[in-house]
Amino acid sequence: MTVDLWQRGCERLATELPEHQFNTWIRPLPPAQLSQDEADAAVVSVRVPNRFKLDWIRAQYAGRIESVLSDLAGKPVRLELTLAPRAEAAAPAPLRASNGYAHATVAAPAAPAAAAALAAVASVTAAPSHPAPAASPAPASNRHKLNPSLTFDTLVPGRANQMARTAALHVAGAPGQMYNPLFIYGGVGLGKTHLVHAVGNALLKDRPDARVLYLHAEQFISDVVKNYQRKTFDELKAKYHSLDLLLIDDVQFFAGKDRTQEEFFNTFEALLAKRAHIIMTSDTYPKGLVDIDERLTSRFDAGLTVAIEPPELEMRVAILIKKALAEGAEMPEDVAFFIAKNVRANVRELEGALRKVLAYSRFSQKDINIALTRDALKDLLSIQNRQISVENIQKTVADFYKIKVADMYSKKRPASIARPRQIAMYLAKDMTKKSLPEIGELFGGRDHTTVLHAVRKIADERQRNSELNQQLHVLEQTLKG
Ligand SMILES: Nc1ncnc2c1ncn2[C@@H]1O[C@H](COP(=O)(O)OP(=O)(O)OP(=O)(O)O)[C@@H](O)[C@H]1O
What we know:
56% of the residues lie in helices and 9% in strands. The protein is an alpha/beta fold. The strands form 2 sheets. It has a 5-stranded parallel β-sheet with strand order 5-6-7-4-8, with helices on both faces. The chain is globular and about 60 Å long.
């Protein structure tokens, strides 16, 4: 009866929630238990594997779940979320492993309640640190690979990295406890490496004797090869299995490397067994990794998987201002907006543009303003202007959503066509210098108010819908070549 109610509730939620939200938060939950409270009201209890997920589900979805269940049961149903016991939480959820659901981008919090929940999680890190696992002093070599300038202080927070940053802060404050392993994924240059270094640096500040190792997946591969040739696997074990915190970047590089995967699996199991923490980064979510054994990918997904998204405009501006200050330069806000509007790919490119502007200003001994910035970035800006035309946008968007280019000018209205058309209008306004009437003309002689409506709608939705934001980001990158 309960399972049935819960099952039906899930089926309903699957149709009402965006797919990636359902797959990330609701689908992995185990079947619920039904009971009655003192007032004889129905209570549905669900066990959630960790506090982070519990806070998030409570803040974001509890009301929705209750109303769906109440509706289906024909009477009020109260949802009770409880933490699963450790052993239960640590096991990879069989449902996830077997059904291969798409573990997509984690949505950024929209409601204040969610922000409060996150703040509550973050504040846990301020508590005194947990007792360190018994360890002899760390060999100095175990700490060498951390970059001391990549800290939480130098990482600009924003919607794009909110979940990942909060989880990372939590791990830094209480390694070996929750979110183990922590799996951080996202596109190039979005701050994954920065974040994992920040955890390592924070832990070492707190516990200088902790054994922390940061390395790129390729270094692990070459270590395995070296030890394989020399038949010195005990050395490999001694190096990795003794760590308190392993930070490993770009695990997608393990693809097709069977022996490495086997060794990593052993390392992984050994570290988790002694409650050492593992943080991994990758360009995709665990189930999206190719040529990596499912035995590994399901373990990657067994702790917490979070995305880092491309930063939105305001965050790009904040990053520019902060990085300029760190270089001893003052960046006027209008200039920061100008650069941020023109350089959107990722933070690394943003840094590149900033370096050019700062160098140009120093070299010409002029203050930083828009005119100087235009000059400094003229190559970059002219490449953009040359490449992006409305026709190009229409073709790219039509290809992306698998509709005909002709549908961009047609009067057809089904959502499968109208929405890509609105997206193309939005991009046309954002990425070209064309006016609303000109864009309307190029979209089959539509009125400028139609274009305006599309531009506003997509811009607004982009703020709230991380899946759309990702798609737009891909389109923007494609258009910029
Ligand atoms: N939120 C941020 N605040 C400040 N600096 C940032 C932020 N995000 C990224 N950066 C900076 O951008 C640069 C690129 O970041 P990083 O190397 O961490 O990216 P990545 O996601 O690991 O990329 P890749 O997949 O290419 O390794 C670094 O210099 C980093 O310090």
